[in-house]
Automatic annotation (TrEMBL):
It comes from Halopenitus malekzadehii. The keyword Metal-binding applies. It comes from the Archaea. One of its GO terms (biological process) is cobalamin biosynthetic process. One of its GO terms (molecular function) is metal ion binding. Pfam families: CbiX. The keyword Metal-binding applies. This is Sirohydrochlorin cobaltochelatase. InterPro entries: CbiX-like (IPR002762), Sirohydro_Cobaltochel/CbiX (IPR050963). Keywords: Cobalamin biosynthesis, Cobalt, Lyase, Metal-binding.
Length: 290
């Protein structure tokens, strides 16, 4: 039996942090791609250190629900899963190309196919576009619109910005939107100045974050002047400096992300059959796209 484990950060402070992980696990479970689907977290239960012990299968595909390669995907997760012989060089990655490494979990003996994060997979580009469709309620959105892909950005991890730029470039190459720009919270160009980067009147803003939390629900809306106080809420779209800002919230809450998890596992050798197409059809209907 092949098993899937989706691993994520989780939070002791934000009870909604784990919601997307559970939702995507449920979607994949219903698609019957794996004998079992489990979830594990760094800051919640079941903990990463224990999650493989909840899995019955001897062959396990582990997919990190993280945006970029870095400390968690390269150090924390392999360490907590006790993956024997792990070395980041097994991925031979440039910060975007981590795919999979097959190792053994020392305490359970299971064969673990450890995958790269969902955030750097090419299929995430489709999720960002779907997010724009969902927030505008328009499956053909693009003409006359600008799109901003927003990331955290940090000097501590150069890979943090690579994923943002990668997907912004891919969307730009489709020529679907009039303008596509990568913006950041902690480095230039900053999301605070979103209207300075677009001539289009309508701008969709999609944060490349897994879950809605402090940054996506409080910081970004206030930084963009959608509201003076996030607790009072804001309109979608909201008018700022003559532009209509369609703020989508975290991309990780988009149901189509379940497809990226399946794609990661399939790239690592999992036999997912027609599950990917089933997930795409199911999530398209959920988004109002037929």
């Amino acid at each position: 039996m092949q098993s899937l484990v989706i691993v994520a950060h989780g939070s002791h402070l934000n009870p909604d942090s784990s919601t997307p992980t559970y939702d995507h696990a449920d979607t994949i479970r219903e698609a019957d791609a794996f004998g079992e689907v489990r979830t594990g977290f760094w800051k919640e239960e079941p903990h990463l250190r224990e999650v493989l012990r909840t899995v019955e299968g001897e062959e396990v595909y582990v997919v990190p629900l993280f945006i970029s390669e870095g400390y968690f995907t390269e150090q924390v997760i392999p360490r907590e899963l006790r993956l024997e012989g792990w070395d980041v060089d097994r991925w031979d990655s440039d910060g975007l190309s981590a795919d999979q490494a097959t190792l053994t979990a020392t305490d359970t003996g299971q064969t673990v196919h450890y995958c790269g994060p969902v955030g750097t997979h090419e299929a995430m580009t489709d999720v960002l576009i779907r997010r724009a469709e969902t927030v505008t309620d328009d499956p053909d959105v693009g003409d006359g619109f600008g799109l901003a892909v927003v990331g955290h950005g940090t000097e501590r991890n150069e890979n943090s910005a690579k994923a943002i730029e990668y997907h912004a470039d891919r969307i730009r190459e489709t020529d679907r939107f009039d303008e596509v720009t990568a913006l950041y919270m902690d480095e230039d160009p900053e999301v605070d100045d979103v209207t300075d980067h677009f001539t289009a009147t309508d701008v969709v803003v999609v944060p490349l974050f897994i879950a809605d939390g402090f940054h996506t629900q409080e910081d970004i809306p206030e930084d963009m002047d959608l509201t003076d106080d996030y607790r009072t809420g804001y309109d979608v779209p909201a008018t700022v400096d003559g532009h209509r800002i369609w703020y989508a919230g975290a991309v990780g809450t988009e149901p189509l992300l379940a497809d990226v998890v399946l794609e990661r596992a399939a790239d690592a050798g999992a036999d997912v059959g027609a599950a990917i197409e089933r997930v795409r059809r199911t999530t398209a209907v959920a988004a109002g796209n037929r």
